[in-house]
Design brief:
It contains 15 helices and 6 strands. The protein is mainly alpha-helical and about 400 residues long. It has a domain of about 180 residues. Strand 3 and strand 4 form a beta hairpin. Bound molecules: protoporphyrin IX containing FE (HEM).
């Protein structure tokens, strides 16, 4: 899709993004070129013009972050009434970006890979202060291995959504794939789908859920075997074999099946040996599908290696990385402290529909250890950290003038 830049999504008023109301809820606007083939018209009409219209989780995050941008604008305007549209827009965008990176690295990947593993790899720091890995000679680029390997997450994708009522009581199951390209239906059921995000994901057990393996793009393609594509893509890209990546990242040269035992269980080695003639022929994805999980995390160590390698490159090559203290328009120490407080639970409490309670740790199953807690118990951003002295001076002057007049 041609990137039309931020102009098409802005209102140019108070920094805000364009949104539309439907049944008292705010959504990115509809438009004539938006494509939602599974909407049942005339009831289901929501279809975003300038954002992607695809899978349920992607859709929810788009709606939440768009709403959150406008929420930040309101908060910034409260503390800085003198800020103009541009200042509000760019500052809100910067805070929203930082927030998504904070959630992604310091919450989601900490949960998946383990905090200590990420600190050891240099992807995150032990403390909450600034850090600067930026190297202007380092080009911002993606490894093909990264783009390929993240398809592994199809294995963690649960395709049955659990629906809950307002009080968090389980109602019934819903096939997740039935929401694809069907934004109108999602928009009409925002409360239920928001709460459905508390459902557990598919434990990594080397299997893939039925719908992900059989009906990847409902309404568009009769049948689609996503894992087959996942395996095949590495062959199209000409990627090296699983054992070559093990050697590259883990330093272990493997030429015999038994040597795989530190990475793959005996039972799974047997399965691989049944399919591949030589251990050095195992496809990268096939190896990742059956590898043991990293200590302290939930995904294979080699997958973590490939992800970490990319993130390190990304942070190093990003001049605007939110933790840099000398980037253009960098956060102050106090502002960064506020960003450190954010969580996916805070995002959902702030902009989610009908949400009074959230899991304490948003990426973990609800349990005795991780109960649902009222939103009032979730740490919040204090936007006074963005208070601009110039605005304060202006408003003091105004008040002074008024006082004199009175
Ligand atoms: C119900 C959930 C999901 C569905 C139905 C789905 C569906 C698909 C489909 C149909 C493709 C294209 C397959 C092909 O061309 O061979 C694809 C590619 C991909 N998916 Fe998923 N996916 C889901 C969840 C996820 C998740 C959770 C992740 C990662 C966190 C993910 C990452 C990717 C990546 C990286 C690609 C490759 C994109 C590219 O080649 O540019 N998907 N997915």
């Amino acid at each position: 899709m041609h990137n039309k830049g931020d102009k098409v999504i802005r209102t140019f008023e108070n920094g805000k993004l364009a949104v539309e109301e439907e049944d008292g809820k705010w959504f990115p606007p509809n438009g004539p070129t938006a494509f939602c083939p599974n909407n049942q018209r005339p009831e289901e009409t929501r279809c975003f013009e300038n954002y992607s219209n695809t899978l349920l989780p992607v859709t929810l995050y788009i709606i939440w972050f768009v709403r959150h941008h406008n929420y930040i604008c309101d908060k910034l305007k409260e503390v800085n009434p003198c800020w103009d549209d541009d200042r509000l827009f760019y500052t809100a965008r910067d805070i929203n970006n930082a927030m998504s990176n904070q959630i992604y690295f310091r919450e989601w990947y900490e949960t998946l890979i383990g905090r200590q593993n990420l600190i050891k790899a240099g992807v995150i720091t032990k403390d909450n202060g600034f850090r600067d890995l930026y190297d202007e000679n380092h080009d911002p680029e993606m490894t093909t291995e990264y783009n390929h390997a993240i398809r592994w997450f199809h294995l963690m994708q649960e395709s049955t959504v659990k629906m809950y009522d307002k009080k968090g009581n389980y109602l019934h199951d819903y096939p997740l794939l039935n929401t694809t390209f069907k934004m109108g239906f999602i928009a009409k059921n925002m409360e239920s789908f928001t709460k459905s995000t508390w459902s557990p994901c598919h434990d990594f057990d080397s299997t893939v859920s039925f719908d992900v393996a059989n009906r990847g793009l409902p309404g568009v393609q009769e049948a689609l075997d996503i894992p087959a594509g996942d395996l095949n893509k590495a062959r199209h890209f000409g990627l090296r074999s699983y054992t070559d990546y093990v050697e590259h990242f883990e330093g272990s040269k493997i030429t015999e099946w038994e040597e795989l035992e530190q990475f793959v269980t005996k039972a799974n080695i047997e399965k691989l040996a049944h399919i591949f003639e030589d251990v050095r022929d195992v496809d990268l994805m096939a190896g990742l599908w059956v590898s043991k999980s990293i200590k302290g995390g939930y995904i294979p160590e080699l997958l973590a290696d490939i992800l970490i390698d990319q993130w390190y490159r990304s942070v190093k090559s990003d001049r605007h990385w939110y933790e840099r203290d000398n980037r253009p328009h960098a956060f102050t120490k106090r502002q960064l402290e506020q960003i450190r407080k954010v969580s996916v639970s805070l995002l959902i409490c702030t902009v989610g529909d009908g949400v009074d309670e959230v899991p304490k740790k948003g990426f973990l199953r609800v349990s005795k250890k991780n109960p649902l807690v009222p939103c009032s118990k979730i740490q919040k951003i204090d936007f006074r950290a963005w208070a601009d002295d110039k605005c304060q001076a202006k408003s003091n002057k105004r008040n002074g003038w008024r006082n004199k007049k009175n």
